[in-house]
């Protein structure tokens, strides 16, 4: 039996496959990962990002003629992007291998100079 667990939190749906032992092997656990492309740069969003809220904030920034929109990326690092009416933005969602350190908690970043 192949189980899928779904967690809904603030508009975000995170799916992952729990580990299952098959003939001495552990099944790969996965999670949904979202990439945000802004003009020519791409950001991989941290888990627990509320995508509906992020979309609303991007749309509001465009409606207001431009302003900074903040979000958290993998590594639990905060990013601010100036969004204007001419900014090109694309959101891409894919299933990737589970990375347990990707919590979305900007108070506990990782991947810096002292975390290799």
Structure explained in plain terms:
With 116 residues, this protein is mainly β. The protein has one domain (5-96). 11% of the residues lie in helices and 43% in strands. The chain is built from one helix and nine strands. It has a three-stranded antiparallel beta sheet with strand order 6-5-9, with no helix packed on it. A two-stranded antiparallel ribbon has the order 1-2. The longest helix is centred in the middle third of the chain and has 13 residues, at 51-63. It is elongated. It starts with a strand and ends in a 19-residue tail after the last strand. The model is unreliable at 1-13 (pLDDT under 50).
Measured as a percent range, the helix fraction is 10-25%
End-to-end Cα distance: 37 Å
Beta-strand percent range = 35-45%
Strand order of the largest sheet: 6-5-9
In DSSP terms (H or I, runs of 4 or more residues), the helix count works out at 1
Strand count: 9
- Number of separate domains: 1
Whole-angstrom Rg: 16 Å
Q: What is the SS-derived class? A: mainly beta
What is the average per-residue confidence, as pLDDT, rounded to a whole number?
A: 77
The general outline is elongated
